[in-house]
Here is the input.
Amino acid sequence: MTSPRVHAQAILNELQRIISADLTGSLGLNLITTGTIDFMPTKGVADTAPMVLIAMGPRPTTFESVELPTPLQAVYNARIIHVRKIKAGEDPVKARIDDAETFAEVLWDNFDMSSLDMTNGQVLWAMLREIEWEPPEDVLVASIRSDLMATAFNMEIVVRTRR
Here is the structure.
C-alpha cells in the first residue's frame, strides 16, 4: 500500500496540537477536540466551555494535478469553533475580538505547520482565511445557555503530495 494521499486526519491532529500547545493557558481551554458541536450533548457544551472543536469543512477538499506525472495539490478547509462563557460584567464584543486576535496570531505563526511530519506530502501553507464573528454555532450555543458564545475560524491548508 502506498503512503496516504489524503491528509485530513493528520491536519486535524496538527491543528489540535498547535491550539493545545499555544492557546490552552491563555484562553483557559478545558477541551480541544475534533468534531462539530452538533454531536455534543447540550450539558457537555455548557459544562465544558471554554473549548475548541476542529473539523474539516465547510467547503470541500479539492485535488488537482499541478505537474505531470506525479504531483497532486490538495486544498483542505478546516473549521475551528471556539466556545466560551461570557463572564458577569464582561463586554462580550471586546472579549470575542481579544480571543480572535489571540487565535489569529497563533494560526498565522504556524502557517507552514512545520511540526507536521507527512511521509507523502508537504504543507505549502495553512492560512486563516475567515473569522466569523457570529457564526451559526453562536446561535446554537446561546440557545443552550445564554452566557455562551462562539466564534468560527475558517482555514485553508494546501498540501503537495504524489498521485
